[in-house]
């Protein structure tokens, strides 16, 4: 079997499928039904996150250490745990990153990478892949930064693939696969730029309640 390439990834995403590696490195393509998405327009940071944002505990950077973010995401979460992010997947997404289509949002403390996430932007759709944190709240702040970016740049779809407790806390919902494919087709018709938000807008969704 040929190695996974950036072109394979692009073809997969525009057709609603994505790769994951088995424990032995074998790649499989998935198209869940139902599909998990996070509504972009209605996103608001949780009450518990707002004080963290206001304290500005983390410096946020975009696309500074893409491959390292992927490697942290690939690290087992606990002893004996395996990962679906193989070296082959890291190589292919890094190629996609060089093409300007895969992106990382990174959180730093004292110039040290302590959290972040990565995903793929095509048209006005963003496909969230994975996140990690070495310090509490680091990935949540990176995610908030991502959501502000998507809102400001008028992205239409944020795909999170499978539902789990982690994405539920950010407002993830499940929709039928057929509905997802319709939304995907619509989102791919219009190009949104993946550009950083104006800094003061990072805190615009925080009422005093």
TrEMBL record:
Protein name as it appears in the record: Leucyl/phenylalanyl-tRNA--protein transferase
Keywords assigned: Acyltransferase, Cytoplasm, Transferase
Protein's organism: Nibrella saemangeumensis
EC numbers for this chain: 2.3.2.6
Keyword Membrane attached: no
Major localization class: cytoplasm
Protein task: Functions in the N-end rule pathway of protein degradation where it conjugates Leu, Phe and, less efficiently, Met from aminoacyl-tRNAs to the N-termini of proteins containing an N-terminal arginine or lysine.
Catalysis performed (reactions): N-terminal L-lysyl-[protein] + L-leucyl-tRNA(Leu) = N-terminal L-leucyl-L-lysyl-[protein] + tRNA(Leu) + H(+); L-phenylalanyl-tRNA(Phe) + an N-terminal L-alpha-aminoacyl-[protein] = an N-terminal L-phenylalanyl-L-alpha-aminoacyl-[protein] + tRNA(Phe); N-terminal L-arginyl-[protein] + L-leucyl-tRNA(Leu) = N-terminal L-leucyl-L-arginyl-[protein] + tRNA(Leu) + H(+)
Subcellular location: Cytoplasm
UniProt GO MF annotations: transferase activity
InterPro entries associated with the record: Acyl_CoA_acyltransferase, Leu/Phe-tRNA_Trfase, Leu/Phe-tRNA_Trfase_C, Leu/Phe-tRNA_Trfase_N
NCBIfam families: aat (TIGR00667)
Entry-linked Pfam families: Leu_Phe_trans (PF03588)
Family stated for the protein in its record: Belongs to the L/F-transferase family.
